[in-house]
Amino acid sequence: MSEFDRLFEAYVEEQKRSAAGQRLEMLGRDLTGTKKMLEVALLPALKSFNGLVLEYEMMSLSGMRIYVDAFYMPLGLAFDSDGYVSHGENLTRDRFSFERMRVRSIGVQGYRYFPFSYDELDKKPEACRRSVYELLGRFGSAPGAALMSLPVYERELLRFGWMRGGNPFTLAEACTCLQLRDDTTRKILKAMTGKEILLPLGVGGQRTHSYKLTDKADLYLY
Q1: Which of 41, 103, 126, 150 matches a 20 to 30 Å C-alpha distance to 202?
Q2: List of domains in the chain
Q3: How far is CA 5 from CA 37, 67, 70, 83, 188, in A?
């Protein structure tokens, strides 16, 4: 087993520990395409697994749960690795329409979608790596320096809050956004509250029911 194989298996297990439901099931499936994409294209450019979420879950325009193979949280980049047999030869009209809706759903949420075919990764790895370097070169400096000073999960919750137009969000919604369990998400929310980025909302000053961005959160845009 190579060093990358060991690192990949360890990272998948780490991802499983923070996953639940269908995402946990997805992480237990064959991840050959995802593994290939990470090995030849993403890790050489990103240098580590930091900020990467495997089988990232989001809601589609039709209200269905959809997943991307790997999501880079600091820049909102959604990466997929597709094999021709699974996505070409067996593609029905309904499936084709679903895939188009899936791509639109990713775009509506403000993310950049960056798919690879398995054949590209296998036969043209250098071209795939170069495209990721070019992507990072174009968008890597997009977030403000203040935003990039925050931990990855805090940055993602900030983006989530901005995308909601500043409207409050619940613990459950934060868990879905981060793909983390509620106990881990509570710690992140508590840290952001301590930094005065989030304001906890409750009834009568008692239990927190939701959170909203404070005016200070907007300082991280620059």
Answers
A1: 150
A2: 3-139 (3.40.960.10), 145-221 (1.10.10.10)
A3: 13, 23, 17, 20, 30
